[in-house]
Design goal:
- It is a single chain.
- This protein has twelve helices and three strands, in the order βααβαααβααααααα.
- It is mostly helical and about 325 residues long.
- It is globular.
- GO terms for molecular function: G protein-coupled receptor activity; odorant binding; olfactory receptor activity.
- Odorant receptor.
- Belongs to the G-protein coupled receptor 1 family.
Length: about 325
C-alpha cells in the first residue's frame, strides 16, 4: 500500500522509521526477536511465581502482575507491526488503531500503578515489619490489584474517547511502529485535539503523584536500611529494592521524555530510541533485572527446570 492511497483510506500507514522496505523488514525481525525474548522471560516469571509455594508473598504476587502487564503490553504493539511489515503493507485500520491506544495507555498506567504498589509493599516490609501481615493481607493485595486494573481501564477509556473526537486528514502516515498518540496529534485537521491534551495533563498529574509516593517509600526504605547493623541485611534489601527503583526510573524518564518532547515533522533517531525505551525495553528487561538479583527467583527457576515432571516432558519432546 502506498502513501498516496492513504488520503482516502480510513486507516493509517505505519512507516516505522524508514521508507526503505528492506530496513522495515530488518526492524520488524529485530522487534520480533525482542518480543519473543520478552514474552518468554515474563512467562517464566508468571509460571514460577504461580507454581512455587515459596513465592506466594505479596512481593511476588505483585511481580506476577507486573509480568502479566509487560507480556500484554508487548503483545498489543509488536505482533501487529511485525505482521504488517512482513506482508509489505504497514496498514492498520482505524479500529485497530483505537484498540491499540486503549490497551497501550491502559496497560501503561496499570504498570505505573503496580510499580507504586510494589514500592509501598517494600516500604511496609522493611519499615513496618511487625505490621506487614496485617497491612498487606491477601484480601488487601487482591483489592489493590483490582484497583490497578480498574484504573488502567479508566485511563484507556479516557484516552480512546478523546482520540475518537479527532478528525484526521491528509496522508495518514505514522512514523512509528504503533498508534502512538503524539504522532497521531500531528495528523489532526484542526484544533480538536485539546481533549487529548487535557487527558494527558490529568494523567501526568496522577503519574507525578505516584512518583511522589514511590520517592517517599524509597526515602524511608533507604533511611531504615542505612541504620541496619548487619551488612548482609543491607545487601539483601538493596538486592530487591535497587532493581525496582531502576525499573521505575527508566520507565518514567523515557515515557515523560517521549510525550513532552515536541514532535517533529520528520522522524529522528531520538524518536526511535525513545519509543523503544518506553515500549520495548522495560517489559523485556524487567524479567532479567528482577531474576538476576533475586536469589529466590533463581532457586525457583532451577527447581522448575530440574523437576522430574519437567525433565519427563522434555524427554518426551525429544523422543
Amino acid at each position: 500500500m502506498t502513501a498516496r492511497n492513504m488520503t482516502t483510506m480510513s486507516g493509517f500507514l505505519l512507516m516505522g522509521f524508514s521508507d526503505n522496505h528492506e530496513l522495515q523488514i530488518l526492524q520488524a525481525l529485530l522487534f520480533l526477536l525482542t518480543y519473543l525474548l520478552g514474552s518468554a522471560g515474563n512467562f517464566i516469571i508468571i509460571t514460577i511465581t504461580t507454581l512455587d509455594p515459596q513465592l506466594q508473598s505479596p512481593m511476588y504476587y505483585f511481580l506476577k502482575q507486573l509480568s502479566t502487564l509487560d507480556l500484554s503490553s508487548l503483545s498489543v504493539t509488536v505482533p501487529q507491526y511485525v505482521a504488517s511489515s512482513l506482508a509489505r503493507s504497514g496498514y492498520i485500520s482505524y479500529g485497530q488503531c483505537m484498540l491499540q491506544i486503549f490497551f497501550f495507555t491502559g496497560l501503561a498506567w496499570s504498570e505505573m500503578a503496580t510499580l507504586t504498589v510494589m514500592s509501598y509493599d517494600r516500604y511496609v516490609a522493611i519499615c513496618l515489619p511487625l505490621h506487614y501481615e496485617v497491612i498487606m493481607s491477601p484480601r488487601k493485595c487482591t483489592w489493590a490489584v483490582a484497583a490497578v486494573w480498574l484504573s488502567g481501564g479508566i485511563s484507556g477509556t479516557l484516552f480512546t474517547a478523546s482520540t475518537l473526537s479527532i478528525r484526521f486528514c491528509g496522508d495518514k502516515i505514522i512514523h512509528q511502529f504503533f498508534c502512538d498518540i503524539p504522532q497521531l496529534l500531528k495528523l489532526s485537521c484542526s484544533n480538536d485535539y485539546f481533549g487529548v491534551l487535557e487527558v494527558s495533563t490529568f494523567m501526568s498529574v496522577m503519574a507525578f503523584a505516584c512518583f511522589v509516593g514511590i520517592a517517599f517509600s524509597y526515602g524511608q526504605i533507604f533511611s531504615t536500611v542505612l541504620r541496619m547493623p548487619s551488612a548482609e541485611g543491607r545487601s539483601k534489601v538493596f538486592s530487591t529494592c535497587l532493581p525496582h527503583l531502576f525499573v521505575v526510573s527508566f520507565f518514567l524518564s523515557t515515557g515523560i521524555c517521549a510525550y513532552l518532547k515536541p514532535t517533529s515533522d520528520s522522524p529522528t533517531a531520538l524518536d526511535l530510541m525513545l519509543s523503544i525505551f518506553y515500549t520495548l525495553l522495560p517489559p523485556t528487561l524487567n524479567p532479567v533485572i528482577y531474576s538476576l538479583r533475586n536469589e529466590s527467583l533463581k532457586r525457583a527457576l532451577k527447581k522448575l527446570l530440574l523437576s522430574e515432571e519437567f525433565i519427563r516432558k522434555k524427554c518426551l519432546f525429544y523422543f
